[in-house]
Amino acid sequence: MSVKIRLRRMGRTNKPFYRVVATDSRCSNSGRFLESLGWYDPDKPEPNFSLKIDRVDYWKDNGALLSDTVKSLVRKSRKGMGLAPESPEPVTEPAPAAEPATTADSATEGQPEATETEAQPEGATEEKPDAS
User: How far apart are alpha carbons 17 and 1 in whole angstroms?
Assistant: First the structure.
């Protein structure tokens, strides 16, 4: 299988933009592709493209041929003219939440409920005035 890195036309009539794809040379330009490597928008002002240079190098090392336009984009990208590809943000696992308080039913099952005086520390009891 001969692999080529070329542009795949997308967009609508008279408003094209392109995806840079690695594809089997026998597939059409708008057909099946192996991997999407970036994008190019000729209507957008500079910088108007983004490439995953590491993936382009991988395919090139494995024998892929580059189209003329893609060669130009790679050359510009190596000079730092294109946008850096958006890498997904690293997924960080949320910190484990504190142990949820158990409900009163399950924690005190079969135990008597605490009274108001048991909940107060020793020596901190308030004296109630006489009701007479």
Answer: 27
- For 40-63, what is each residue's pLDDT tens digit? 888 888 788 888 889 989 989 989
Q: Count Cβ atoms within 10 A of the Cβ of residue 77 and give its class: 0-12 exposed, 13-18 middle, 19 or more buried.
A: buried
Q: Which CATH class is domain 3-68?
A: alpha beta
E-only strand ranges, the chain = 3-12, 15-24, 35-40, 49-51, 65-66
Report the alpha-carbon distance of residue 100 to residue 126 in Å, rounded. Answer: 32
Instruction: Pull the structure tokens for residue 104.
Output: 């009163």
DSSP string, 56-94: HHHHHHTTPEEPHHHHHHHHHHHTT-SBPPPPPPPP-PP
Radius of gyration of the chain (CA): 33
pTM, two decimal places: 0.58
> How far is Cα 9 from Cα 15, in angstroms, rounded to an integer?
10
Q: Give me the residue spans of the domains in the chain.
A: 3-68
